[in-house]
Amino acid sequence: MSLPARLFRCVILLAALARPVPAAKVAGYALLTEPDQGLSALYTLLSSARKSIDLTMYELRDGTVTALLEQAAAQGVAVRVILDQNNEQDRNEAAYADLAAHGVAVHWANPAYACTHQKTITVDGATSAIMTLNFTPQYYPTSRDFAVITTSAADIAAIETTFAADFSDTPIIPPTGANLVWSPTNARSSLLGLIGSATGSLQVENEEMSDRGVVDALCAAAARGVAVRIAMTDRGSYAQAFGQLQDAGAALALYSPSAPLYIHAKVVLADYGTAAAQVFIGSENFSRASLGRNRELGLITTDPGLLASISTTLDADFAGGQPFARG
């Protein structure tokens, strides 16, 4: 590697580790809310590895992430990376080649899935970050996303078992650990079950709204008196679903695609403020492919601190959108 290239990597690494912004700590978890907090906590997680890093990513174009992975490999850390190829091979080619040239074991995701849309980091078999975000810096300043950093032994064991299978293209029904939501196995039943269990309120964010089962479940919830609030970026193609949801009694707050905030998060918060409150956070969009054909990962939890932080953000996002109006 040339001297300018080495200097550039040093600058990247120093910038990533300087004055990191801590994640919002809650009982059992650390929650990152983007774009508010930035990615310093995730960069610090990667730099903390002493034994292993396993990373599954739909799209990897963040030079800081690749530099940290390569630095870890150079220090003797066993670094394995799975990158999507069915949808994002062209965008992932540069990262794949760079990582492979610097001692990282990198694998194109199993083509049996429509795509591998999962976004997960596991460090030293002890800490995992389950994310809604891709490592694509151009979207960091504007994209609403979340990451949950967890040390749940049951969940991490399930994530690592599934990673090992996916790294070798071995078929697997992923173990669900304490609270994991996997596509294409239990995602649909878990999300429909969560929506169907709501008795008082549902706060929802998602990038897509094309899955008929999810739309019908949200409509049924609104029709039975649940206060359903949905915040999304308006992509036009979902107008029919938006109209159906509005007719059922759901309230929709939409953002223009050119707005300063883009709703990329995938979240369902049910019955916040009650003993039955639960939240889903993960990579799953509300589409047939995402729930039934992709490799995806999320979790459902009842952690009170995480619920409160998510609710605050969803309230603000809903207040910032515009009501849906039929064209």
Concise structural overview:
This protein has 327 residues and is an alpha/beta fold.
Describe the protein.
The chain has 327 residues and is an alpha/beta fold. It folds into 2 domains: 3-178, Endonuclease Chain A (Endonuclease, Chain A); 183-323, 2-Layer Sandwich (Endonuclease, Chain A), CATH 3.30.870. 36% of the residues lie in helices and 25% in strands. It is built from 10 helices and 17 strands. It has helices spanning 3-17, 40-47, 63-74, 89-100, 153-167, 187-197, 212-223, 239-248, 288-292, 304-320, and strands at residues 24-26, 29-34, 52-57, 78-83, 105-108, 120-123, 127-131, 143-150, 180-183, 201-205, 227-233, 251-255, 262-263, 267-270, 278-282, 296-301, 322-323. The strands form 2 sheets. Strands 1, 2, 3, 4, 5, 6, 7, 8 and 13 form a 9-stranded mixed β-sheet that branches. An 8-stranded mixed β-sheet has the order 9-16-15-14-10-11-12-17, sandwiched between helices. Strand 1 and strand 2 (29-34) form a beta hairpin. Helix 1 crosses helix 3 and helix 6 (187-197) runs parallel beside helix 7 (212-223). The radius of gyration is 19 Å and the shape is globular.
